[in-house]
């Protein structure tokens, strides 16, 4: 009698694993769809519900600030007036085309799955506002996050910067445990992240917008060449800008300064 080859005691080793689709329907991810529940063509960073809107004047420049009230336990560590004071000591040409500063409260899922200190969007559409936008994101006070000890050189440099910002950093056999305080969040967001995002804009303006220094005389090609650069290279430029500007302001006694209420 010919055997069928089917052996009931041999189970598929993928049963109950992600390889067979287990858990895919309830995976914790941030939706990528550009269309929100109202049918608007937006990305999640543009879905801002400001509790107040302010205009700050810096020299001859005018910036709009959209402020979302932080949830209990979250903080920005700084205020729009703090931003205005710091920017008043930065060359106006570095941020003259930036239209918006957004204090944004991330959702709990975003804070868990996609935590960032801030970001630059080269053209954000938020309600009736449209233009280059710097975001500062609210951070949770006293809640630790972990970094593996298997770090690249860039990650090691960032860890050193976080330590210099005043975050409490402990280590165990496998990880560094980083615990932010309200003061250290202020140091990171106001004195470093804001300058870092402006650094991204300075490079973009120089290499994609300025006809005398752009990567190509053709605007579309200059844009493509800028964004074809490795993200690591753009991050290093922004880090250098932030480091140099902060060091200069510290040498002048501008930084640090007390919160402006």
Q: Nearest-angstrom radius of gyration?
A: 23 Å
Assembly state of the chains shown: single chain
Shape: globular
The run of helices and strands is EEEHEHEEEEHEEHHH
What is the average per-residue confidence, as pLDDT, rounded to a whole number? Answer: 89
What's the end-to-end separation, in Å? 89 Å
Class from helix and strand fractions: alpha+beta
Number of strands: 10
- Catalogue the unreliable spans: none
Q: Which strand order spans the largest sheet, edge to edge or round the barrel?
A: 1-2-4-6-5
Main beta-sheet strand count, sense and barrel state:
5 strands, mixed
The percentage of residues in β strands lies in 15-25%
Total helix count? Answer: 6
User: Could you estimate the helical fraction of the residues in percent?
Assistant: 25-40%
Describe the protein.
By secondary structure, the protein is of the alpha+beta class. Helix content is 33%, strand content 21%. The chain is built from six helices and ten strands; from the N terminus they run βββαβαββββαββααα. The strands form three sheets. The protein has a five-stranded mixed beta sheet with strand order 1-2-4-6-5. The longest helix is centred in the last third of the chain and has 28 residues, at 182-209. 25% of the residues are buried. The model has no long low-confidence stretch (mean pLDDT 89).
Top keywords for this entry?
10 strands; 261 residues; five-stranded mixed β-sheet; 6 helices; alpha+beta; 33% helix; three-stranded antiparallel β-sheet
């Amino acid at each position: 009698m010919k055997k069928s080859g089917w052996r009931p005691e041999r189970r598929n080793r993928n049963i109950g694993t992600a390889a067979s689709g287990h858990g895919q329907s309830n995976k914790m991810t941030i939706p990528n769809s550009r269309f929100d529940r109202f049918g608007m063509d937006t990305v999640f960073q543009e879905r801002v519900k400001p509790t107040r809107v302010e205009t700050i004047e810096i020299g001859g420049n005018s910036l709009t600030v959209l402020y979302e009230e932080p949830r209990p336990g979250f903080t920005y560590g700084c205020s729009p007036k703090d931003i205005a004071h710091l920017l008043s000591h930065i060359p106006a040409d570095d941020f003259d085309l930036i239209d918006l500063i957004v204090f944004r409260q991330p959702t709990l899922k975003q804070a868990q799955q996609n935590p960032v200190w801030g970001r630059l969007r080269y053209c954000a559409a938020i309600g009736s506002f449209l233009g280059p936008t710097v975001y500062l994101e609210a951070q949770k006070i006293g809640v630790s996050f972990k970094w593996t000890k298997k770090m690249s050189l860039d990650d090691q440099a960032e860890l050193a910067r976080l330590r210099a910002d005043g975050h409490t950093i402990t280590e165990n056999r496998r990880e560094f445990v980083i615990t932010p305080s309200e003061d250290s969040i202020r140091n990171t967001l106001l004195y470093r992240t804001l300058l870092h995002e402006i650094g991204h804009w300075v490079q973009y303006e120089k290499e994609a917008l300025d006809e005398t220094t752009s990567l190509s005389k053709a605007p579309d090609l200059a844009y493509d060449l800028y964004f074809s650069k490795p993200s690591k290279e753009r991050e290093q430029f922004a880090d250098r800008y932030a480091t140099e500007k902060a060091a200069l302001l510290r040498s002048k006694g501008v930084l640090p300064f007390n919160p402006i209420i």
